[in-house]
Every structure is written in C-alpha cells, then in structure tokens.
Design brief:
Helix 3 (58-70) packs parallel to helix 5. The protein has helices at 10-20, 35-44, 58-70, 81-86, 88-97, 124-129, 145-162, 172-176, 243-259, 261-264, 283-298, 316-326, 340-349, 368-379; strands at 5-9, 25-28, 51-54, 75-79, 101-107, 138-140, 165-171, 178-182, 267-270, 277-280, 303-308, 310-312, 330-335, 354-359. It is 39% helix and 18% strand. Strand 6 (138-140), helix 7 (145-162) and strand 7 (165-171) form a beta-alpha-beta unit. It has 380 residues and is of the alpha/beta class. The protein has a seven-stranded mixed sheet with strand order 3-2-4-5-7-6-12, with helices on both faces. A five-stranded mixed sheet has the order 9-11-10-13-14, sandwiched between helices. The longest helix has 18 residues, at 145-162. The protein is built from 14 helices and 14 strands.
Length: 380
C-alpha cells in the first residue's frame, strides 16, 4: 500500500485531516468513542510543530481551544455526548465572539452517560441548538472514513474563512469504521487562513461590517486593539444594549452563513430523478440506506437517497428541488434517535411530501433490510 493509501478509522482520519488543513493545537479530554482523535493528535501534532494538551475536563478543553484560536492558531477538540454537553457554554462564546474552531463530536447513546460504546444519532439538534440564544454554526456529517478526512479539512477551512465554529458530527460506527483512504484524493491547495487585520491600527474594528460579513481578526502582536467579549457587542467590540446595534450584531452572524450557503452546503444523491420515495439520512444510517436503495432498485422499486453532508445549515433548497423534480410523495427518514432529522425535513418540506420516520434507540445500527421494509410499507 502506498504512503498516501492507508487503512484508517474515521476518528484517525479526522485527526489527520485537521493536521493537513493546518491545525496546530488540540486540547481535549478522553471520552469514548472519540478518544482516538486525541490519541492521533498527541502522536502527530508534535511532529509538525503543533501542541497537544490534555485538559482537566471538557469545559477547560473548549476554553483552551478558543484561547489558542484567538492567539492566531488553528485549533480543534474532540468529544462525545456528555463532553459535548459540557462544551456548550464555551461553544456559545465562540459563536458569539466569532472565534474560528473545530469540534469533532462522535455520537453515542444517551441521555446522560447512556451507552458509551454503542452508536446513536441523538445529537443532531444539539449540534445546532445546544448552546443558548440565536447563533450561527456549521455542522458537517461525514458518512465514510474518506469523508471524515476530507470534511474535517473542509471544517477547518470553513471555520477560518467564515469566523465560525464548525462541528464535525460522526456516529460511533463511522468513528470506529476502518476503510482504505487515499489521502492524495484531496488535491493539494494553498493553505486557507482567516482574514487578518491590515491597514491603519486606529481605524480597526474587531467586528466591522464588511461586504462579505466576515470581519478581519487581529493577530496578537501586530498592534491592533481587539476587544473580545461574549456580551452582545458593537463593531468596535465593546458591549452594547442599543436595540438597533444589538439586533444588527446578531443578525450579521446569521446573514453571514446565508450569504455563503453555496460554499457551505454539500449533499449527495443516489437514484433520485424518478424516485417515488426519497430516503434522507446521515452517517451510518445513510450507508444502510444506500444499500437499501440498491436492493429495492433491483426489485424494480423506485427509491432514491438524499444525504446531507452539510447538516447545518440544512440544504433545504436542494431537498425541495429534488422532491419537486422527482415527484416523490414520501420522504423516509431513518435515524438512530426518536425523530430529530425528521422534524427538520418536515419543516423544510411543509406538506410538499409526506415525511415518515424510521427510528431506533436501542444502540444498534439501522439495517438495510429495515429501511427497505419501511420503504415498501410507505409505498404500499
């Protein structure tokens, strides 16, 4: 096997993808089933001049990542359910202060400590709404080891260019799945960095309203004053309670992602053009759905798959267009929770098609046969 073709776990691929994208700082705390991300980072970061630190807990880990990023370094952490819950306050600070950072969340059974070694997909809504208040965030959901590699690279790049935290969301199966990955399949390209402040220091505003809605950041030591706070702030960085200014500050972070949706959104489709029924799924459930589509097509059943790679913001225009083009009357949503993704699909389609869920919460992955049977019943 060549040096660029390697057998990797999904968690390992996340770590290597982050390093390739220029991540040079990792702070974390061991937690099943994400610990391999930290293990690879501990081994590989020092080789490229990076820093790995095991913090005392998940709260401190997120704080250290934010601090490193504010210091001008690309930074990442990794965790699972209970740890992701602990990170929410500091993740909200990163959202409100527009601090670039990447968080890998490898989902396991819950709530609470739940089933640490069993797969689940119960964090779909938490990744979007886990921290309080209206906030902008990007969530990417790989469904293979190669995607864990490429999407973590993309996560670092999106985080940097848009000044926004990005979550890479895997389930336990994808995190521990081993596949052969061609690392060279991701083309070499110039390293992507955030915009750093330029021009007269006295004119610099840390949250300036720019044409692309992404303010440049001050690099420590360059002489630009930067006031950073989790309080709602004016362009100058200082807290404000002036209604119009406060509203504009929050709205800009939302509009920022809307403006750049074409760069952010990604999805995959399979056999959708003439589908009577569409399946919408992520992670290991999407892989099972892919096989179910093949099996059903072999039987003459017209079923297709829509897989959002960008989970948040959800690629809603793409899904609506596919349903309209195919004429599908039903969208089946298989997921390892009690119906989180199905709720979003219902919101997006708003009666355009019937949404039916296939939910599983027993710590077992949904099988292709289960999806195929649910699809047949929905079409009957």
């Amino acid at each position: 096997m060549t040096a660029t073709r390697r057998n990797l776990e999904g968690n390992e691929a996340c770590a290597l993808g982050a390093i390739r994208a220029g991540c040079r700082f990792f702070a974390g705390y061991p937690i099943t089933p994400s610990s391999e991300v930290a293990e690879v980072m501990a081994r590989e970061l020092p080789k490229v001049g990076g820093t790995f630190i095991q913090m005392e807990d998940e709260i401190a880990s997120m704080g250290a990542v934010i601090g490193a990023s504010m210091g001008g370094v690309k930074a990442m952490t990794a965790t699972s359910g209970p740890g992701f819950s602990l990170k929410q306050e500091n993740l909200g600070y990163a959202c409100g202060s527009e601090i670039p950072c990447v968080v890998v969340n490898v989902m396991r059974g819950g709530p609470s400590t739940g089933m640490p070694t069993r797969p689940a997909q119960g964090d779909i809504m938490q990744t979007r709404w886990g921290t309080h208040g209206d906030h902008a965030i990007i969530v990417l959901a790989p469904a293979s080891v190669s995607e864990a590699y490429s999407e973590t690279i993309r996560a670092v790049e999106l985080s940097e260019t848009l000044r926004v935290p990005v979550v890479v969301l895997l389930d336990e199966v994808i995190g521990h799945l081993t596949e052969t990955v061609d690392l060279a399949a991701v083309p070499e390209a110039p390293e992507v960095w955030r915009k750093f402040a330029q021009g007269p220091a006295e004119a610099f505003e840390p949250y300036a309203v720019t044409e692309d809605l992404v303010p440049p950041m001050a690099y420590p030591g360059d002489g630009y004053r930067a006031h950073c706070t989790g309080l709602t702030h004016a362009p100058g960085g200082f807290p404000t309670q002036v209604p119009a200014v406060a509203a504009a500050a929050v709205q800009r972070t939302t509009d920022k992602l809307t403006l750049h949706r074409e760069v952010i959104e990604s999805w995959r489709v399979q056999d959708v053009d003439d589908a009577d029924l569409l399946i919408c799924a992520i992670g290991i459930s999407a892989r099972a759905a892919r096989q179910a589509v093949r099996d059903l097509r072999a039987e003459g059943v017209k079923v297709g798959l829509f897989r959002p790679v960008t989970l948040w913001p959800f690629p809603e225009d793409a899904l609506r267009a596919l349903v309209a083009k195919s004429g599908a009357k039903t969208v089946l949503v298989p997921e390892m929770n009690q119906g989180q993704l199905a709720l979003e699909v219902e919101r997006v389609l708003a009666g355009q098609a019937r949404v039916q869920g296939l939910f599983k919460i027993d710590g077992q992955a949904i099988t292709p046969d289960e999806i195929a049977q649910a699809a047949k019943e929905a079409l009957a």
